[in-house]
Protein 1
Amino acid sequence: MNIQQKVNGVWGSRWVFILAATGSAVGLGNIWKFPYITGENGGGAFVLVYLACIALIGVPIMIAEVMLGRRGRMSPINSMLLLARESNTSRWWGSVGWLGSLAGILILSFYSVIAGWALQYMSLSASGEFYQISGEASGATFSGLLADVESLVTWHTVFMALTLLIVMAGVVKGLGKAISVIMPLLLVLLLVMLGYSIAEGNFAEGWNFLFAFDASKLEWNSVLVALGHAFFTLSLGMGAIMAYGSYMPEEKVSIGNTVIIIAMLDTLIALIAGLVIFPIVFANPSIEPGAGPGLLFVSLPIAFGNMAGGQLFGFMFFALVALAALSSAISIIEPTVAWLVESRIASRIKATLGLGFTIWFVGLGTVLSFNHWADYTLFDKTFFDSLDYLTANIMLPLGGLLMALFVGWFMNTKAIVEELGPIDQGGYKYWLRILRYVSPVLLAIVFVMSLIG
Ligand code: PHE
């Protein structure tokens, strides 16, 4: 065990890593964001581009990021500095870690507000608020929530507090156990909901919307959104996966296979969420597929309000969404906490509290962007929209691009082989080529094209 692992811990086994990384990947991105951006970007063609981005860019970069962590064995900032030195190249690569920390602060600030909606919807479900609710009434309930600053702040505060408590206790303790309960339950409940959508929703139309390819609906900006979401949903490009990789035990496991398992689970959960939500949307004319961030919260209460046991299912479902969000939130803040602790700037408790307060404060901007600040926009985007766009579509892909370039072109080959095994045979042969040529070029094309429209 080296210094970092003594300071910040190490996973009990390979499985704890898989669970923790899956816990990081599966979150609001899959259940809340994927359906609503799919709705906003016209459906099938967007989904196809998203799947291609996962396979051609996400998976190769995720392998690179886990490897960087396991090799560096420190927080992302220090790992990048260390590996740059080991590879005799510039200290500037440390900026990958800095960029990631900044992205993490911005992401968690709005992530926590949205997770707060899920907390509030737990209590609304349990209290029977959704009993036989209509599409219109469900829309009104959600708008009411957005206008209610006090509730938004309260639930945002509760969610941040839960996140900080877990991070203060250290990532290893408890986390692995929690995830191994949350993930299977979430999947089961999603399948229950899928049963409801097949039986009661407009399943054929929902299916078509998700999977019918209509290229005419695709603009360059949608391609950028799909690409950005591939990073967001896999927790890539900001060091979350790198930090988790640095806690991997010494036992040699195939990073490639591990990453493929995580990416497939993540994609599966997003697609099921889409198949649950869109049939309900199409069965209720008052809800638009492009309704935006409220899509999940407007559509699902209708299902819960009309199914047997809906009060309990609704409560459980939103509880699971909140838990899935929690297991992602801790991975968003962990890289920076790890860096503060390891650099002896602060103890774990002080680091977590200080950082947590900063993030909570920035989150107030997102809260206000749904009401008092709703009319203050920049390029037609509210504060929340801007943060979401800046982080998912620019900062994460940029971080990922830098990681791909570093591993593909600058990192010491001997170090790569020591982590992954021979890279001139099997899947890794393609991996290195994709990482060198395909991923960076695709990323560059999407960036440039969406800039010039
Ligand atoms: N992947 C998480 C989700 O889908 C969000 C996340 C983004 C987590 C970036 C860590 C880093 O909800």
Protein 2
Amino acid sequence: MTRTRLRRSLITVGAALFAIASVTAPATAQAPHAGLPYQNPALPVADRVNDLLARMSLDEKLGQMTQAERTALNPQSDLATFRIGSVLSGGGSAPSPNNAQSWANMYDSFQRTALSTPLGIPMIYGADAVHGHNNVVGATIFPHNIGLGATRDPALVQQIGRATAEEVAGTGVNWDFAPCLCVVRNDRWGRSYESFGEVPSIPTAMTTIITGLQGTTLGAAPASIMATAKHYIGDGGTTGGVNEGNTQLSEADLRAIHLPPFKAAVDKGVGAVMISYSSWNGVKDHGNHHLITDILKGELGFSGFVVSDWAGIDQIDGQAGFSAGDIDASINAGIDMVMVPTDYKLFISMLRTEVNNGHISRARIDDANRRILTKKFQLGLFEHPFADRSFTGTVGSAAHRALGRQAVRESQVVLKNAGGILPLSKSAKVFVAGKSADDIGMQSGGWTISWQGSSGNTTPGTTVLQGIRNTVTGSGSVRYDRNGNGIDSSYTAAIAVIGETPYAEGAGDRPGGMGLDQEDLTTLSRLRASGVPVIVVLVSGRPLDISAQLPGWRALVEAWLPGTEGQGVADVLFGNVAPTGKLPVTWPQSASQEPINDGDGKTPLFPLGFGLTWPVG
Ligand code: GLC
């Protein structure tokens, strides 16, 4: 069973089990051992950690290093029985109904179970809020990172981090598996849209999102969510842009291209680092002691904890599932918590064996626990273990959506504007076409409500078409037909909103062509045949191979994956704002140029940093 299908089946079963568990969980968890040093918030965190560590059995320490997917915890009481320290929602893994209140209830139910253990160590709950709290229906979905990179606006990105933290906190979740600080070097890679840009300076600048998520000090203010710098290291540099592939670089080049964003993240106090599935010169990152312990923990001084990716340790020996060798290699390399995420009983049993036979030292186990517990104390989980319901109402709030609209405006990159056709008049007679024009799912991309994302009306928001309709006024008019049927020469312009259908991770790898799909090409032909000027709005997670079609277009705007606030696209098209977006990646003349990056001597269609504008007013 592939990972995708396994994920989906787990999620279905779990939704049903959760409904039962939330009814049977104890009403309130008794506060065990109140008054002991580790329970005293007035003491320094280091003292609390030392006191708690001294009271923990080996099994309690092994449990803290174990992260289980919510749907795998069957029965839910296993969370307490096996002293598990962390629960996660994989992509799209949500309670039913999927809304903020239901998430908070789910989180509290798991936490009550965790607190029922003798030492009452709270669990920490992780989820991928990579462009807003994207697993939750009704949440504000911000542009994916590649669009935020186009804004070149670190202050805006910090605000997005804060807004995301409020929505995440309101659902109980206290650990965000974000930001992805990958440096995308080959746009064939299915995770290109998770990168802020192809040069280290852009993701480095955007580490401000960590301060937005955590606050200036983790846990010092309400709605402080622990951030995760991922995926360490080199995921965006794999040969051929193959997801989870092999990055073949000298150490000097690996350090020059892929390390700076992680250094910036560590300097900003990021609480966690997630290891990349990829290999460096043939060695899996998940087992690389030099990368994790020597460089990340030693040289950079990272004092948070290192978490594996989803079943990431399984890949170390190249065999299916995790082996004793995988466990030894990963924990001894410096991984502190393992996202198992399903067979947690077997993992704990095998980890115990590897400690008892001396393959993993007690000191390594204690170091991992010290790191994990330090973050739990700093986050305030011992004092405030339950969802902060004062933030639940911020999920999808007008203020957050306004911020999302601003981010969409700033991320638009105008690549062509022949004859100054843009900005359009608000009283224009426009024809809108394209599969991506009226589809929230399409404009949000992967990691939206489900892991892979999907087309359709998946969550409340404003489509690009709705934004256009909201903007055209007076004698203006808007007609929409997905395929362009009905267009004639009477229209001022035809706006074709086209591009990629949603995908995530390896499903998005494009080893072959990177051109438009047939539906879009057919729609464009129909529009072009009318003789009406064609303005293309491209909804994609990366540059596409559009050189052949570009001469027939009057204008081209790269919208990236804007999320729920499509009004921001219309704001640029009709001149509510002047465009300021700049390419965060080089745009190739053809897919055969990949990898193509700034300074490599190749001649692109549009260079890194390109973006047109026009006078305001
Ligand atoms: C995925 C991704 C990672 C994500 C994790 C948990 O496979 O690689 O980015 O945080 O699993 O969903």
